[in-house]
Amino acid sequence: MKITPLSRHIGAEISELQLHSVSDREFDQLYSAFLKHKVLFFRDQELTPDQHLALGKRFGALEPPHPFFPHVSSHPQIVVIETSRGNPPGESFWHTDMTFQSIPPKCSILHAQYVPESGGDTLWCSMAAVWDSLSDSRKQYLKELSACHQLHAFKGSRYDKTTDQGESIVDKKSDQYPPVFHPLRYIHPETQEEVLFINEQFTRHINRLNVEEGEALLSELFTVARREEFHVRFSWQPRSVAIWDNRVTQHFAVTDYGDAPRKLHRVTVKGESV
Asked: Among the CATH numbers 3.60.130.10, 3.10.310.10, 1.10.3110.10, 3.20.20.70, which is that of 2-269?
């Protein structure tokens, strides 16, 4: 196994390894690299749906089927992220997956089935590096605050449908996923890193602050997280794989490929309480 770091704060490419046949010793090395580099990239990986799920289970228990995303018909825990002719991607946001849950996921494994000849890159951001960049006084202030996370970003998206009764599916699902509050400062349970735990897609407002103050603070922090020094960028190829630590990262899908056909499969692992 060869590990090649890709940036100062985040990302490494792993070569000379096939994910469908990783030994226990190799997985220990892989897991250590996962914690250190936060997102790992692989090329030319053949993973059947069963192998994809089996790999995910080595990281922990799997999330149930996603409340909105389509899935592989025979394997409902494998999300399908797909663009086809006449069905372009929706608006993209920086996000940490599923923070609208009381316990957001630990990690995800994304496997490219087919991708456009150009475009469609994904960026990841180290939110530990973002936290570290803040002043001590800012950190101390943020430690006392929490933020509300909600499903609102799916409202009106291509994943929102209207029921026969004229009700939005997102509105209906919101009953099962009421607003949750997560602290702005999260302690990673394995590395003990301090992490800024907000994201542009699901973070709604900051507790204890009025609307104007909360929006100003979120805007300030989002601006810091958009700085390229905290990012790594990955260009997809067929059979590429990305495995990322959802507890310490955000990611952003670049939607610069129109409705060119693109299909990826994602398996997501359950997390621990923040």
From this structure: 3.60.130.10
Spatial distance between the Cα atoms of 149 and 146, rounded to a whole number of angstroms: 10
What one-letter code names the amino acid at 195? V
Per-residue pLDDT at 154:
67
Which of 149, 251, 262, 265 does the annotation list as catalytic? 251
Among 95, 188, 231, 265, the one annotated catalytic = 95
**CA–CA separation, 159 and 79 (whole Å):** 13
Angle at 183 between CA 130 and CA 170, to 5 degrees: 100
pLDDT per residue as tens digits for the range 109-167: 999 999 999 999 999 999 999 999 999 999 999 999 999 999 866 665 666 667 667 77
Per DSSP bridges, beta strands 39-42 and 12-15 are parallel
Query: Which pLDDT band, with edges at 50, 70 and 90, does 271 fall under?
Result: very high
How many Å separate Cα 119 from the centre of its chain? 19
* Active-site option among 97, 182, 245, 262: 97
Q: Is 75 a catalytic residue?
A: no
Closest CA to 8 of 232, 246, 272, 250: 232
Let me know: does 65 contact 73? Beta carbons within 8 Å: no
Query: Considering the entire predicted model, what is its pTM?
Result: 0.93
Pairing relation of β-strands 241-245 and 249-253?
unpaired
d(CA 216, CA 135) in angstroms, rounded, equals 17
Residue 9 bears catalytic tag: no
Calculate the CA 207 to chain-centre distance: 23
Judged by phi (left if over 0) then psi (alpha if -120 to 50, else beta), residue 202 lies in: alpha
